[in-house]
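Follow-up to my earlier ticket, as requested here are the two runs.
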Amino acid sequence: MSLYPSLEDMKMDQMHMAQLSYQSHIAEPTMPALTRSVPSAPMYPNIGTASPPPPYSLSPTAPPSAAPKTVSPTSLALYPTMEDFMGLELSPEVLRANMLDYTVSVPNVPEAPAALPQYSTTIGEHNMVAPLSSQTLGLQRAQVTHGLREVTLCKDASGKVGLRVCAVNKGVFVSVVSKGSPAAMCGIRFGDQILQINGISVAGYSMTQVHDLFRKSTVNGINIILRDRPFERTITLHKDSMGQVGFQFKNGKITGLVKDSSAARNGLLTEHNLLEVDGQNVVGLKDKEITALIEKAPANLAASDQVKNGSFSANAVRRSTARSNLVL
């Protein structure tokens, strides 16, 4: 069973497989052999009559078998080609015979069969089939694995690691990561769940208790075990001809979807908070800044949103950050 990052990738792959199936199963047309029955006994004219012999042979030989009709490669295509357009003959042989420039620039060499496109991409532990999104860098950066990883931090010159946490449902989650801080350089991201700090399980700890652990830690060798963003998911969207992906948002929260848009087709939900655009965190940014990032993003856009949770949300983080600008 194949996995796809978006509905558009799945439809494109299905069209490609249908084309290959059509080309491999098409039957070569054959001409039916013309047969004529040969009389089992010689035919004689009526006795007593002098009828002239017939102008044709009474025992004709079988006609030569018709040569099998060859099928051009273009006739195997599911869609018409330029050679079939308005009766134009645009094959390489005709062009070489009538256009000198073409003869010089394109040597008469046998054409090699077209290789099948390779558009699979490995994301986490899965091999995704992505004919449209395989070359998108944001697809690799924005993937959420929900797996565990271990990082080692150190404090900067001011004695800080550059992150802030909040406690939700007996768990501890990263709510702020300072740009250029040791936490950012280690790859810690908004929404990561902290499980252990220096071998101490922090389940049930409050925000103050976790911050105290960081303050009391040594300058180097701060060991942290994280779970990758358990409240988040990544959705790959594709821009239409107008450069739109098909959703509205206000204060970072998705408020509406456009019918038949890429956002609607790929299962984007309202009342979810927009967290990342093409792998870049947008928590705390103004709506105009987020819109600018979406406009600058390539045609294949990877967006991460947050599963609705009353305690842990981007808006709650904004309120928490507004009360205190302390970053450890």
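Run two:
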Amino acid sequence: MKEPIENLWQEVRDLSLGSSTHIDQLSSPPTPLQFLRDYVSPNKPCLISNAINHWPATTLWHSTPYLLNTLSYSSVSLHLTPTGKADALTPHPTTSTTCFASAEVQRIPFPDALTRVLESDPNCVGYLQQQNDCFRSEYGPLSHDCDPDFTWASEALGCLPEAVNLWIGNDLSETSFHKDHYENIYAVVSGEKHFLLLPPTDVHRMYICPYPAANYRYSQDTGEFSLELEEPVRYVPWCSVNPYPSPELKEKKKAKFPLYFDGPRPFEVTVKAGEILYLPSMWFHHVRQSPDSRGLTIAVNYWYDMRFDIKYAYFNFLQSLPHSMLCNAASSGNLLVESQRHSSMGNSGEESSITASASDGLLHDSNDAAEK
């Protein structure tokens, strides 16, 4: 089974995506027909220039006083982590179990939140990343600075955006590999975003496993974080691969996740200020960012509902193939032991069936919660 799956990875690139690590770049927005025919239907990403030049945001948001004044009476959701990695895997400090860690979320006035982002350090990183249509709710006073949708995308997809989100962060924030069930139009207003992309056909290379959910807690008194496992235990299927392991762990991670490190290279995309990335549904993506001269990276993304068509059925079939059929014995054994350790922590009901499935195969993502 391993050889046909590996052939699939290569054929997708040969027939549709190309053999390089770059994606198509368009110098202007596509027509609805071109967008649907050349990118949505084949589930193919592209980078688009000159699509948001007319937005007031492209000039106004480079002024910090403008942001502070416009949102002076707004309360927003600030996400805090000790590493800049929210919705990511980390070892629990007391049990050493790898868990899925979510940020501490504080609802505070925007001026205070922006200060926390700008004054972040490697031990306490602030990120404004609430999602859930936050641009039209928490950041409503800024909504007139951007278009409510992209007409060429809305016409091609046959709907308006389900949600619009604002992201304000710094160079310390990083988003782990994950996928979303949305067609994503991602516009960078300030700074740069650096994406690694893998198509849905590469699902086995992500080594998706269930991890117990945990939440960071931040103490204002001590300035320190704790990490608390959720009770009752809840498991989150998540990608196990970190594409940038530390030098001392690199060889160990390459041996543990050979399908990723020995397979085709990910597509690499830098989205600069004023550019748009079309990120198709179900594509795996990892995100880093570079700030502007103020230390900020600002982006707005538009989630459009995906079509649950035959491509989705194909993906679910591919995802259901047992991971053990592709991995070598050592790698499969490591993942099996890890899944069994999670199972012994007291899961029940649906969580039990999820963990059992991961021991033999891959999973459907239950909560796609990260940079969309």
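The only thing I checked on run two: Confidence is low (pLDDT under 50) at residues 329-333, 336-369. Let me know what else you need.
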